[in-house]
Every structure is written in structure tokens, then in C-alpha cells.
Specification:
By secondary structure, the protein is mainly alpha-helical. The protein is built from three helices and no strands.
Length: about 70
């Protein structure tokens, strides 16, 4: 149903400043300029660890904990 949260049923929504398209464009531009270029270096060094940030919070937490235990 439009205007109703699929998870909790709330109808009260707040738009944050970082939910604007301009903000996203700036953030993705910064990522592409500053972060993305260093990923291949860490991959070559064999020290890059990946976590599926789109997974549920328990899965993400478990993945991070496993990585940290392995250090």
C-alpha cells in the first residue's frame, strides 16, 4: 500500500538531507574518486575483505566478526 511501510506499517516518514539526489551524486563521485581507486591495491596485497552490506544485519555482523577473528 502506498505511503505505508512494508515492514512496520508506519505512515510517518522523514526525509533526511542525505536522501536527496544531489547528495547521492556527490557521495558517489567522492567514492569513485577517492575510494574505488584503492580497491585493486588491497586486492593485489591479499588483504581486502568483503562484506555483503545488503544482507540482514545479523549476517553482516557475523561476516565482520569472522573477518576480525581471522586477523
Amino acid at each position: 500500500m502506498p505511503g505505508v511501510c512494508d515492514v512496520c506499517g508506519s505512515t510517518e516518514f522523514t526525509r533526511r538531507d542525505d536522501d536527496k539526489p544531489e547528495t547521492f551524486k556527490k557521495r558517489i563521485g567522492t567514492y569513485n574518486a577517492q575510494t574505488k581507486p584503492i580497491v585493486p591495491y588491497y586486492e593485489r596485497e591479499g588483504i581486502l575483505r568483503r562484506v555483503d552490506g545488503m544482507a540482514d544485519i545479523d549476517t553482516v555482523s557475523r561476516q565482520i566478526e569472522e573477518i576480525l577473528r581471522g586477523l
